[in-house]
Amino acid sequence: LSESGIPQLVQLMIWDYATDIDVEGKVQLIEKYRRCGFSKVWFASAFKGATGVNQSLTLIGHHLRNQLEWLQVASRIPADILEGIALTGWQRYDHFSVLCELLPVAIPSLAVCLQTLKNGGYSEQVKENVEKLLGMSYLEIDTFMR
After folding, report:
1. Is residue 128 part of a domain?
2. 41 and 7 in contact (C-beta within 8 Å)?
3. Are the beta carbons of 11 and 40 closer than 8 angstroms?
4. What global pTM score does this model have?
5. Known InterPro entries for this protein (predicted)?
6. Percent of the chain residues topping a pLDDT of 90
7. Mean of pLDDT values over 24-51
8. CATH number for the domain including 67?
9. How many C-beta atoms surround the C-beta of residue 63 within 10 A?
């Protein structure tokens, strides 16, 4: 990779939507790519559409935990290497699959994920901010929103 010149032409994006990311493995992977000459890396998480091919409602807690895992990875690498986090929201698994988790039902998840990333973690204050921003009286994290 170093000799190909590719590291000067592209930035890598590491995708993982799990709630139990192998943090140490990701840190080692990033270090490996740094040694090859890649100076920047992106992370890709999800706020919806990554939990089941026919999922209709968004489970906020799953996506929240994914953001928290990525924040752990970010805290263990040099700050100058992370270019950003692409917060994805998949509409379907492939072009032949049914639509899943339409955007309106996922707005609370998007808000929680964005606020968590912006604040570097999740807290009661983040939850209250999201409730206020969305005009909600109670935000459900670990059960499906009603």
Report:
1. yes
2. no
3. yes
4. 0.92
5. GH, HEXDC-like
6. 79
7. 95
8. 3.40.50
9. 28
Residue 143 lies in a domain: no
Residue 49 is predicted with a pLDDT of 87
Tokens at 131, concatenated = 């409730």
In a domain, 146, yes or no: no
**Sheet bearing 41-48, strands edge to edge:** 12-15, 41-48, 82-89
The pLDDT of residue 140 is above 70: yes
Short-list 108, 109, 105, CA closest to 46: 109
Look-up of token digits 């928290």: 68
CA dist., res. 69 & res. 76, Å (int): 11
Number of domains making up the chain: 1
Q: Comparing C-alpha atoms, which of 56, 42, 132 is closest to residue 99?
A: 56
The per-residue pLDDT for 145 is 63
d(CA 1, CA 39): 13
